[in-house]
Design brief:
Elements lengths: L6 H26 L6 E4 L5 E6 L2 E11 L5 H17 L9 E10 L29 E10 L2 E8 L5 E5 L3
Parallel strand pairs: 3-4
Antiparallel strand pairs: 1-3, 2-3, 4-5, 5-6, 6-7
Length: 169
């Protein structure tokens, strides 16, 4: 069999290489430009109820956030939206004894991922608590009952509190 030494054969080979290069470049660009979306992971098994004063109950929820936004306004808005969505389905605030709900947000990391499948371990030889990972702490969102209404306050990192909503009298 005779090798193809014609200009047409060379052009076809170059065309195939160019197509492969362009395809590879486009795929690489798409993968590197992919924006990672935030994902909220409620740690429902770690929800706890604290009766802190004369039948005034505070319920705390822990939530991990995968890929939290770097932009603080976007992060605040996403957290606020998550809490609002959670409140629509929450029956506890309708109970007279429940005075507040506290949502505690942490960044999902190698440290905090442990709590997706495990409860906190208090005392004993092994002590594993999510609060030990202060570097992964993001925010608290506190919803408190008041005279015929609610106050919703966001505590983000080490910044001053921000009242998101209040219809208290």
């Amino acid at each position: 069999m005779k090798p193809l030494n014609s200009p047409f054969a060379t052009l076809m080979i170059c065309s195939d290489i160019l197509k492969s290069f362009i395809t590879f470049s486009l795929l690489l660009t798409l993968v590197s430009c992919k924006e990672y979306s935030q994902k909220f992971i409620p740690l429902n098994h770690m929800t706890f109820v604290n009766s802190y004063y004369k039948n005034q109950i505070k319920i705390s929820y822990y939530v991990l956030i995968t890929n939290p936004a770097d932009d603080l306004e976007k992060l605040k808005n996403k957290i606020t939206q998550f809490v609002e969505d959670s409140l629509h389905n929450n029956q506890f605030m309708k109970e007279a004894d429940v005075k507040s709900l506290n949502f505690v947000f942490y960044k999902k990391t190698g440290n905090t991922s442990y709590f997706i499948k495990h409860n906190e371990e208090h005392g004993g030889l092994y002590n594993e608590e999510i609060s030990h990972y202060k570097e992964d702490y993001i925010a608290n969102y506190l919803v408190e009952k008041c005279d015929k209404g609610y106050t919703k306050t966001l505590f983000l990192f080490d910044r001053p509190e921000r009242i998101v909503y209040s219809n208290c009298k």
